[in-house]
């Protein structure tokens, strides 16, 4: 699979985006206030640390209908055009956004497509994924899958 084929994989990109929405690796973004401002009715002074909880924003029903459901169609071109800007930011936003975003998206899309072309994935023991927040967000215990070769 080559990067040139990426445009032929719209569903793969949607699946990855929905996964990043549900489980953003950078689930919280700390920032330092540069000038006095009001935020949510609170006065914030310069030098104060402000934390943007990406995880909770991505799970907020104001921005994502049925936020706990896995629905890749949220990332169709029509749905993205209708969504409020800056409500999906798994790589941050603005001048402080992750510089490796496009490479990460490319690599993840190509890896997932290549894996799914060769194998069918079967969940070994279905159960709710519990998150384990550390530097990045991770599952609380391994998610076991069985790979079955496609013919």
Molecular structure report:
- It is a single chain.
- The protein is an alpha+beta fold and 151 residues long.
- It has a single domain (3-149), classed as Cytochrome P450 (Cytochrome p450).
- Helices cover 28% and strands 20% of the residues.
- The strands form four sheets. A two-stranded antiparallel sheet has the order 1-4. A two-stranded antiparallel sheet has the order 2-3. The chain has a two-stranded antiparallel sheet with strand order 5-8.
- The model has no long low-confidence stretch (mean pLDDT 93).
Level-1 CATH class name: Mainly Alpha
Number of helices: 4
Oligomer state of the chains in this structure: single chain
Radius of gyration: 18 Å
In percent, how much strand structure appears in the residues? 15-25%
Number of domains: 1
Largest sheet: 2 strands, antiparallel
Q: What is the name of the CATH architecture?
A: Orthogonal Bundle
Q: Overall 3D geometry?
A: globular
Record the strand order, biggest sheet.
1-4
Q: Which structural class fits the helix and strand makeup?
A: alpha+beta
Poorly predicted runs of 5 or more residues: none
Short note summarizing the structure:
28% of the residues lie in helices and 20% in strands. The chain is α+β, with helices and mostly antiparallel strands. Strand 6 (131-133) and strand 7 form a beta hairpin.
């Amino acid at each position: 699979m080559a990067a040139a084929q990426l445009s032929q994989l719209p569903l793969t990109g949607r699946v990855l985006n929905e996964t990043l929405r549900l489980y953003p690796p950078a689930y919280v973004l700390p920032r330092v206030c540069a000038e006095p401002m009001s935020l949510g009715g609170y006065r914030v002074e310069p030098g104060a640390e402000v934390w943007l909880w990406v995880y909770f924003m991505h799970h907020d029903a104001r921005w994502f209908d049925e936020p706990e459901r896995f629905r890749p169609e949220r990332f169709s071109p029509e749905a993205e055009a209708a969504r409020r800007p800056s409500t999906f930011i798994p790589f941050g936003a603005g001048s402080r956004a992750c510089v490796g975003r496009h490479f990460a998206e490319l690599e993840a899309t190509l890896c997932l497509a290549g894996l799914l072309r060769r194998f069918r994935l079967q969940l070994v023991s279905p159960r709710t994924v519990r998150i384990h927040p550390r530097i990045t967000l991770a599952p609380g215990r391994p998610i076991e899958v069985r790979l079955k070769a496609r013919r």
